[in-house]
Amino acid sequence: MYEDFTAHLSHPVFKVIKKYLEDKDYSAFVIGGFVRDLLRENKSKDIDIVVDGDALEFAKDIAQILRVKKVSVFKNFGTAHFRYKDIDVEFVTARKESYSKDSRKPMVKQGTLKDDQYRRDFTINALAIDLGPHSFGTLVDPFNGVSDIKIGLIKTPLDPSETFSDDPLRMLRAIRFASQLDFKIDISCLKSIKEQSERIKIISRERITDEINKILLSPEPSRGFKLLKSTGLLQYIFPELLELSGIETINGKSHKDNFLHTLQVVDNISKSSDHLWLRWAALLHDIAKPATKRFDKKVGWTFHGHEELGSKMVPRIFKSHRLPLDAKMKYVQKLVRLHLRPIALVKGSVTDTAIRRLLNEAGEDIDDLMLLCNADITSKNEFKVKRYQENFKMVSEKLQLVEEKDKIRNFQPPVNGEEIMKTFDIGPCYEVGVIKGKIKEAILEGEISNSYQEAKELMLNIGKELGLKEKETHN
Ligand code: ATP
Ligand code: MG
What we know:
Blueprint lengths: L11 H9 L7 E4 L1 H7 L6 E6 L3 H11 L6 E3 L4 E6 L2 E7 L1 E4 L8 E4 L2 H6 L9 E3 L8 E2 L4 H7 L1 E2 L5 H7 L2 H13 L2 E2 L1 H10 L8 H12 L5 H9 L3 H4 L1 H5 L5 E2 L2 E2 L3 H15 L3 H9 L4 H4 L1 E3 L3 E3 L3 H15 L6 H12 L2 H7 L4 H11 L3 H10 L6 H25 L10 H8 L5 H16 L6 H14 L10
Parallel strand pairs: 2-5, 10-11
Antiparallel strand pairs: 1-2, 1-8, 3-4, 4-5, 6-7, 8-9, 12-13, 14-15
Helix pairs in contact: 6-8, 7-9, 7-10, 13-14, 13-20, 14-17, 16-17, 18-21, 19-21, 23-24
The protein binds adenosine-5'-triphosphate and magnesium ion.
């Protein structure tokens, strides 16, 4: 199928390439994600150019014309890259590839555009548009990628078993695109992924995590995770999630399928936030349920302490996925640990003290915690969900009122250690800690207000009780 896409190629990079090719006897095409997204009427954040000549020289020349100073060249791969304004532009020499069994590193030879399109992962990613001066804007679609975009289908240009065996990462990419674009995966592709899911083991953890993150950031991440499970990939890339799956029944009492529940929570949170780490917190909030599951004859199934244990499991999971072990991990740990607290308020009586304690523990992350907790309300019974959500709203409102009044969220004790030491003329010691702790407790308990005056008064009283003498001041 050939169509004219000239009108969509107004970006300076394309214009410069067209002009440059006027006195050259080779050709260049924009290929892959850019063309796919163009046809879906979406904007792409990067441009991939395939050249049937030396892409490295080509990239350097184009960069010079565009006055781009820094070009990164990867000689071994025959690729070059530069950034022009806010767009990444990648150049690759058109190539033919063949693979050996135990590696995803191909033997690469120079080839034609057609060869290059054959080595692409999916028909929707193999579309190219000519950038040469004589056929500028012509779409080259050898595998009916356009029609697959229209019907929403992920399909390989070659026999899927070969495509996936050559590079098992493509199995994950298939699922990631299905989840991102809400596309179906072709039946023979799905079958082939099921058959060779185990080969995902040769892929590096970093590449796998990139794909998991993209699935998590898709509009309805459950689509991707359900596919990961049904294809058998989940057991190799995220066994802890698979453990959540299933229902057990004893004496006619069943617990819910925690895998499906978790996915529902992730979908719920995705409606209200694009924040990757909040979505990770949703994915991991019940991760310790299998390890804490007990059956009690009176109360049925319990998962006591799953929030504490889950929070402790987070570092190991982050490490195994090569995720950052920094403040982002601490944030996820915190949300997992606290995820039951707001709902406990909904169920119990909502005292100001309980709210102040929660505000103090959640700090800056209180809004995210409330989002997570609201997303965690799932049940087949719509009436129940509605009632819970109404109660939940009440807690949210109360939280706001208490925060406005007491300012606990970014709690800074109104009397600090420095002042305590000065007042009693003492150095850093045990008593300073005691006084500080008692002031904080009194504020959280509502015995005094969060004000300097009342805190100072309390400090003097506690000091007296502890046998400390106030330093005399001479005016
Ligand atoms: P996005 O950047 O939005 O995630 P994309 O399609 O641009 O999507 P990239 O990973 O940037 O994906 O790859 C660019 C192009 O390179 C793809 O469209 C595809 O044609 C090709 N490609 C990338 N990875 C593979 C792979 N593992 N096997 C075959 N072709 C691939
Ligand atoms: Mg891309």
